[in-house]
Amino acid sequence: MPDLKKRITEAAKSGLAKSVARRRHLHANPELSFAEHETQRYIAGQLDELGIPYREVADTGLVAEIRGGRGTGPTVALRADIDALPITEANDVPYRSRNVGVMHACGHDVHTSSLLGTAEILMGVQDHFSGSVRLLFQPGEEKLPGGATLMIRDGALKNPVPEAIFGQHVHPPLEAGKVGFRPGIYMASTDELYLTVRGRGGHGAMPHNAIDPIVVTAHLVTAIQQLISRNTDPTLPAVITFGHIASDGGATNVIPNAVSLKGTMRTLNEAWRRELHLRLDQLVTGMAASMGATAELTIANGYPFLKNDEALTRRAFGQARHFLGEDRVVELPIRMTGEDFAFYTHHLPACFYRLGVGSAALGAERPVHTDTFDVDEKCLETGSGLMAWLAVGGE
Predict the structure, then answer these.
(1) Spatial separation of the C-alpha atoms in residues 345 and 162, rounded to whole Å
(2) CB within 8 Å of 234: residues ≥ 6 apart
(3) Which residues are catalytic?
(4) Which of the listed residues 303, 332, 358 is the one where a domain comes to its end?
(5) Per-residue confidence of the chain (395 residues) as pLDDT tens digits?
(6) Which of 112, 123, 135, 197 shows the smallest number of beta carbons within 10 Å?
(7) How many Cα atoms are found within 13 Å in the side-chain-facing hemisphere of 96?
């Protein structure tokens, strides 16, 4: 389809300035997970201008539909997440966040503006495809239970069920103009751990009269790591990390009554994920009791592992090479980070890929989830054009 490829390529290039303007508006006006009311209104206004029908779902999300001009055919879904993070931006740029303490530090402004650019491209090539393309503007990717669960609950994948779904995510290590794919299992499940160890406080000089929860916690943290090093199949990636430990008081000479911990558990196998839940609970309660303390564990079930459909992703890899050039498409390693796009991958064939946003000018110190995160905005041309090509293009 040389004519279609040319039209999409030219439309993505000519639409870059508008995509940049959309991205900067979104970046300057970020909203936290499940509170994206103004973001939703802005997206709806953009869809109104393009003449694309939509409906509100998941409270602050939107589902839009673009029908091809060649009659009936399959439906392909495209997803962008729209929420921001609780971070105060440090960048001194004209489009800096106006909402103190909130920032698009994970590139969801790029995802959303790219999908709006894709929508505009598709409206210009409706005569070239059959079936329809469904646009999912999803809230709450950064917060449990994940906006994907609410989109699915509200029928975003029904009437009809799409034959495939695509999502993209910014990737600073990859320069703008490039993309990366990984067929099969790609990202980890993510569960949140909340653990409280209770002992009996006392004077630091008389520990025999107390039950020191700090010592118990130290043993527990070490023992929990053995669930990974000595109970998990060495060929199966898994990780447990505690990122927060705090006592309910204490001082240099005071033993506290309790210690609280917060952490994350990740793996790439759902059966082992469930087994880890059971073993962790048995370990912390049993070990704490053996030392005279008690332990209360809460596991907040998060996102499942993300699996890219093998056939769909390999086909998309080839389509991307045809559209962008062979030197601009790479294969990615497995990651232990998580994404709620994973929920879609357990419902229908899916492909979640990485969009390069880096450049020498930005340097290497602007990773996602930091207050200095930013992108080379030329990525928006690739982001909008490639997604349109994957939705309706060919080999």
Answers:
(1) 12
(2) none
(3) 83, 141
(4) 303
(5) 668 999 999 999 999 999 999 999 999 999 999 999 999 999 999 999 999 999 999 999 999 999 999 988 999 999 999 999 999 999 999 999 999 999 999 999 999 999 999 999 999 999 999 999 999 999 999 999 999 999 999 999 999 999 999 999 999 999 999 999 999 999 999 999 999 999 999 999 999 999 999 999 999 999 999 999 999 999 999 999 999 999 998 899 999 999 999 999 999 999 999 999 999 999 999 999 999 999 999 999 999 999 999 999 999 999 999 999 999 999 999 999 999 999 999 999 999 999 999 998 887 668 999 999 999 999 999 999 999 999 998 64
(6) 123
(7) 11
Long-range contacts of 87-90 (CB under 8 A, 24+ apart): 87/369, 87/370, 87/371, 88/371, 89/371, 90/371, 90/372
CA 345 to chain centroid, in Å, comes to 13
pTM to 2 decimal places: 0.94
Instruction: Choose one of 281, 303, 325: the last residue of a domain.
Output: 303
CATH code (residue 274) = 3.30.70.360
Domain of residue 275, residue span: 190-303
Per the structure, the count of domains in the chain is 2
Give me 133's structure tokens. Answer: 């393309």
Same domain, 309 and 172: yes
Structural contact between residues 322 and 1, judged by C-beta atoms closer than 8 angstroms: no
